[in-house]
Sequence to fold (153 residues):
Amino acid sequence: MNRFDFTPYRRTTVGFDRLFDLLERQARAQGGDNYPPFNIERRGDDSYRITLAVAGFKPDELDITAQQNLLVVKGSKADLDDKQQFLHVGIANRGFERRFELADFVRVEAADLADGLLTIDLLREVPEAMKPKKVLIGAPKQLSVIEGDANAA
Fold:
C-alpha cells in the first residue's frame, strides 16, 4: 500500500492543506507512466532547471504551457511515414504529457532543446510586498525589507 491518509494531521494543522493536497496528488501520479525521464536541478537560491530526455522530438513537436503554479510539457510525434519499414523500434515514438507543480511566484524564464534534452529554466521572484519585513519595537510606523535574512519569517 503506497497511499497515505493525512486526515488525522489535517485536524491539527492550519494552512497546510495545499501541502497535503500536493503530496496526495504526487503519490497518485507516481503510479503512472515515468516517460520521459527528467531531472530537477537547483542552480541558485531562486533559480531551477528542469531537464527532460526527449530524444527524437523536434521543437515543433513539443509544447510548453506555463500557468499559475503549473507547468505542462507535451510532446506529440508526427505519424510515421508509410515508406519507412522498421525491423526494430527501440526509440519511443509515443506522445507524452508531463506536469510539474510550481511553487508560488515561480515563472518560466527560458526553454531550449539541444542533444535530445529539453531544458526549462525557472526563476522564483517574490514580490516586494511578500518579502519578510523587520518590525522594530517603538520605531515609527514604517517597515523595512530584510535583505538575505531567511530566519526573519
User: Anything to note?
Assistant: The chain has two helices and nine strands. The domain at 34-126 is CATH 2.60.40.790 (Immunoglobulin-like). Strands lie at 38-42, 47-53, 62-67, 70-75, 96-101, 106-114, 117-124, 133-134, 144-145.
